[in-house]
Backbone:
């Protein structure tokens, strides 16, 4: 099944509206879709309505920013009740501080000779509560400082480079508890992106499972074929459900389009099998 269970709208750091994403997913042959904006469920009703209108089965979603072992880790929640009070409060607390962080990032960029980055990034923001590094990256590309967002994330905004501001996100325990408490399944997003030692990665997976986490992204836009093979083994080793998502943000920036990823390896158990009762289907 062509399930795409990870992408972003302009309610977080994507460039398309939820309605545009639903139409694009349908046109690309997606058969089950979830919008997973960062730290935010504000686009969920629109995404669901638009998906059902074009005849596309829908799962609710979000992608929560977590700090684990001094590293930012992303946890995707699928099939959550978006009205759940503890989930909403947890996401609001996680978003809180993004604006101040953005101001500090602009101050750091100014020290490197780049003026006006806060106002510049704000021009790209769809949701003022969700200023992200991606919006700064778009500003740095628009002003010609870098040629593309990949170059930005090599030269700026990352540890040791101008514009980087350390930030403490949610704890792993809390993020998993919010998702599970809201009736969803927690999934470790794009595990190959974290620069963990073998011990740290083992700790991440063990603690995630101890807190109630059940899934891992095996096929994602940020995994190579070798990464997918490696995390397929990890999914089996830890008996985790496997997820698949493009992590699509923008037609101009994302190399993986909605629904364009390889299939999940057949030996894995897809996460959507465990979410049957949470899938919303067109009538
Ligand atoms: P933030 O949550 O504000 O720290 O921003 C994180 C976002 O920056 C991620 O969700 C990606 O959309 C984007 N990002 C981080 N690293 C990269 C990268 N190497 N290339 C492109 N986008 C990136
Ligand atoms: Mn993003
Ligand atoms: Mn992510
Ligand atoms: Mn993402």
Residues:
């Amino acid at each position: 099944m062509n399930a795409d269970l990870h992408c972003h709208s302009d309610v977080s750091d994507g460039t398309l509206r939820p309605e545009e994403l639903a139409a694009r997913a349908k046109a690309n042959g997606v058969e089950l879709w979830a919008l997973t904006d960062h730290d935010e469920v504000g686009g969920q009703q629109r995404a669901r309505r638009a998906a059902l209108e074009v005849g596309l089965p829908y799962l609710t979603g979000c992608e929560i920013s977590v700090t684990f072992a001094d590293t930012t880790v992303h946890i995707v929640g699928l099939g959550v009740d978006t009205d759940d009070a503890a989930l909403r409060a947890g996401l609001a607390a996680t978003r809180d501080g993004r604006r101040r962080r953005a101001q500090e990032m602009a101050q750091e960029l100014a020290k490197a000779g780049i003026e006006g980055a806060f106002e510049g990034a704000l021009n790209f923001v769809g949701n003022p509560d969700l200023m992200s590094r991606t919006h700064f990256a778009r500003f740095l590309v628009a002003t010609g400082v870098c040629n593309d967002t990949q170059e930005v994330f090599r030269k700026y905004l990352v540890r040791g480079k101008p514009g980087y501001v350390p930030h403490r996100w949610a704890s792993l325990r809390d993020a998993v508890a919010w998702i599970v408490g809201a009736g969803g399944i927690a999934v470790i997003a794009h595990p190959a992106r974290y620069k963990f030692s073998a011990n740290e990665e083992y700790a991440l997976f063990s603690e995630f499972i101890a807190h109630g986490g059940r899934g891992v992204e095996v096929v994602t836009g940020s995994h190579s074929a070798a990464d997918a093979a490696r995390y397929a083994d990890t999914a089996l080793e830890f008996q985790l459900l496997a997820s698949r998502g493009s992590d699509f943000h923008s037609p101009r920036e994302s190399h993986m389009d909605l629904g364009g990823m390889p299939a999940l390896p057949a030996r894995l158990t897809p996460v959507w099998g465990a979410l049957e009762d949470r899938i919303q289907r067109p009538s």
